Structure formats: C-alpha cells, structure tokens
Amino acid sequence: MNTKLILPIAAMAILGTGQAQLFLDHFDDAQLTSIPVPPNPGTGAAVNDTDITLTTPLTLPLGDSRNLQLDRTTVRTGFSSNGDSVAMSSGLLNLAGDANSDLKITITYDDSGNGMGLDVSGSQNLFLFGYSQDQDTTWSVTLWDDKAFSNSATVSHTQVGNVGGNLAFLLSSFVGIDTTHIEKVQIVIDPLNFGGDVNLHAVALVPEPQEYALALGFLGLGFVAVRRYRNK
C-alpha cells in the first residue's frame, strides 16, 4: 500500500465537499532538524530545556501556522545525548530520541497567537491518524475556546507498548469547552521512557459525515503502523 498517496487523496475528498470548517495538517513541510548535543553529561535530573521551536505557515482553508516545540526533559546520568531529532517529510512527523534522552513534542495551532475562531460543533472527534510508537506514550490534546487562551480542557490517552493505529479524541469529553469557536489546539506527544520513537501522519478535525470518509481514507495507515512496529 502506498501510504504517501492516502494523505492527499483523503484531503482532496474532504476539500471537495465545500464545507467551510476544516482543520487538517498532514506534515508535508519536508523539514529536518537535529537537536544539538548537550554541553555536559546528564545528571539524571530533569533538564526541561526547549531545544527546538519551529513555526511553520500552513496552507489550510482557514489560514494558520503550526508551532512545534521539542523538549528534552531528562538526560540519562553520566551520558550526553547526540542522536535526537524531529523530522517532517512526505506526510510524516517523526520524533526520535537516542537511548539517553527522554523527549516530548508539543504542537500548537493558534493562528500565530491570534486565535483560529474555528466552529467544530458539527464534528464528533479530533483525530490523530497513523500514529505509531515503540514504547508507552501519552498523547494529549488541549482545546481553548477564548482568545485570551484562559479557558481550556485536556484529554489524554496513554497507549501501551509497541503499537500503532488511529486515535480519536471525543470532543464532548472536553468539559466546559464551547466547540462553536475553538481558538487554540495543542497536542503533546510524550514517550514515557528514554529513547522514544514516535510517528504521526495527520491531525484532522472535520465535520460529519466527512470525518467518516476521512477515517476510511486513513484506515490503511493504522494497519501499516501496527504492522511496521510489530515487525521491528
């Protein structure tokens, strides 16, 4: 199966419906950035340093940008970390930490701080399509519904082991959020041990029934992700 073709085909199917409220990011920027080696060996204590911040204009129907922040939270005692990287290419976001690093990645959409004003009241889920991981990983989504970014709700799923597939975050589970004007979306991917390797093909928040068509279009990515990681 050619997974590179699934993304544009699914996107075109949704765009062709003429629906105004669409949010779709399929990581086709072709960016590659490596994290510099820490100046000193790790102590085993929390580092919590921000190593990379990338803000990328996106070609979305609403017009937006993506802010991607990569944090090295801990470096193993007595070691340096020199194999950490984040990459985006051909419809794939990859976060890879070496054996001595505990990393997490934060992806933020808020129209460069201006707020998106996105009405998703006709949707049921925010989807993370084609995810894969090689260890226990927590995937979290936070939504804000005001331009001051003061009212938010977070939903998290911890996926166990070497698995992959598609993740759905039910919008009704974001308690206290008005889905008629979502101003900010933030996704945090946090492998829970050293050396995490995770992939994500797309983020989608689209109206019904288009979300079902999109889910079918991305269904193969889940099978590919599971098969890939079970065969590692």
Describe it:
By secondary structure, the protein is mainly beta. It has helices at residues 3-15, 210-230; strands at 23-25, 31-34, 46-58, 64-75, 85-88, 93-96, 101-109, 125-133, 137-144, 152-159, 164-170, 184-191, 197-200, 202-205. The strands form 2 sheets. Strands 1, 2, 5, 6, 8, 11, 13 and 14 form an 8-stranded antiparallel β-sheet that branches. A 6-stranded antiparallel β-sheet has the order 3-4-7-12-9-10, with no helix packed on it. Helix 1 (3-15) packs antiparallel against helix 2. The chain is globular and about 50 Å long.
Describe the SSE topology.
Elements: H1 3-15, E1 23-25, E2 31-34, E3 46-58, E4 64-75, E5 85-88, E6 93-96, E7 101-109, E8 125-133, E9 137-144, E10 152-159, E11 164-170, E12 184-191, E13 197-200, E14 202-205, H2 210-230
Helix pairs in contact: 1-2
Structural class: mainly beta
How many beta-strand segments? 14
Number of helices: 2
Shape label: globular
What is the straight-line distance between the termini?
Answer: 18 Å
CATH topology: Jelly Rolls
> What composes the largest sheet?
8 strands, antiparallel
Low-pLDDT parts are 1-21, 222-230
Strand content: 35-45%
Helix content: 10-25%
Order of helices and strands: HEEEEEEEEEEEEEEH
- CATH top-level class: Mainly Beta
Radius of gyration: 18 Å
Mean pLDDT: 75
Can you tell me the number of structural domains?
1
**In the CATH hierarchy, what is the architecture at level 2?**
Sandwich
